Amino acid sequence: MPSSSGSNVPRDSTIIDKIKNGTLKIAVYGLGHVGSPLAAAWLRAGSHVIGVDTSELVLTAARNGQTLIHEPGIAEAYSEGLKNNRFELTSDPVDASNKSFFKMICVPVLSKELSADLNAVCSVANSIGKGLKKGDVVSLNPSVPPGTTEKIVIPTIENASGLSVKRDFIMIYNPERIYEGRALQDIEQNYPAVISSVGPNSISISETIYSVIFGKGILQIGNIQTAEAEKLFEGIYRDVNIALANELAKFCEATGVDFREARNAANSQPYCHIHKPGIGVGGACIPIYPKFILGLAEQLDVRCDLTKIGRSINDSMPSYCVKQALQLVKKGNPSELTVSVLGLAFRGGVSDTRLSPTYSVIKELKKYGVKKIKVHDPFVIEDPDLDSDVILTSNLAECLRDCDLIIVTADHQDYHTLGKSDFGDVPIYDGRGILSREEIQKLRYATLGLKDKENRS
Prior knowledge:
This protein is α/β, with parallel strands linked by helices. The chain is 41% helix and 12% strand. The chain has helices at residues 13-20, 35-44, 56-63, 74-83, 93-99, 119-131, 148-161, 183-190, 202-210, 224-255, 259-266, 289-300, 305-326, 357-367, 396-400, 413-416, 420-423, 437-440; strands at residues 26-29, 49-52, 87-90, 102-105, 137-140, 170-173, 193-198, 218-220, 338-342, 372-376, 391-393, 405-408, 428-430, 445-447. It has an 8-stranded mixed beta sheet, with helices on both faces. The protein has a 6-stranded parallel beta sheet with strand order 11-10-9-12-13-14. Strand 5, helix 7 and strand 6 (170-173) form a beta-alpha-beta unit.
């Protein structure tokens, strides 16, 4: 059984003191969406942090007290750490390992084929091994297929170091559990750290280390493979639930049921937790975790039909929603339309465009022959992955001007209060269900679970 932060595992106050006064240094490998908030949390705790990254752009920004990640509190933590000489940046992973006591592997594992690409993890593990010392602690933090830590990472470190995890160093698996846009808050206040470890006195030492930054405590898991699976289960639960919501929303459109009202009433029952439907599921988490499980299940000849069906439903939503949106437009040939898309980030409040459903929406619009597409996002200024013929702007008024159809794809706060004065008489498809019905009741409008008013029974 897992033990919580209320367990009687002893904590070494000497280690805590040395981490907080900088005697024992923390190396964070990868200053991206996971590594940058973790580095900031350690800096805010008073630790000495070595930030390691292969990108000179990332390192230059960090040396100037900035981050390329749109995340509250990180830049301030960087600046304070630099001011107090507690934050150093390097592209030399072996030197960082040699200088540090605790090493956190925070590099991405997502490939273009949407499968687990562990090349970066293995490269970092090999470099850490070359600088590893007896008594050091290593932690793997990205979400990975079960078995990755014990079958790949540990052997890589042991081969490079000549040391043994059974007697010489500690290996921890600690899946990141952050919601983009509030990452520091999640680390410091919102969720307990899930950890599982191997090595000498690993339970006590791992809990001691993580207690420094995780205010909600520690959840010890009995073995590493279970901890790896736990994180994937979190995402799959949400993916399948979103798929259910999308399926029910389409049912409501066909029958005249108001999905939003039905959902709110159903969720007043404590055992019902229907999620919100949406135009697509993006980001580097929820769409990917089912693929990790499905890939391993296929190797083991285990059926995971519900997981597979849920992913298929969510993948189909951009196509479904674009078809519904185009039905709002009265004029004929789609090739003559100008369509304004609100949101390029995969969801509201972030600048992260990874696997954003907006890319699929644009692709679907082009299948219908739409030639002029404008995209607005308050946080995304440029995007090399966007088709060159698509206009990207941070000027909302400009995006809404002279268009024939508006599609909301991200729930940015800027969009929640839009209404008749902003849209004019242009039809709008709300792919996130965020617009106030009072604001848009005079418009030609549709959203998932509610067809446009001229077609409602």
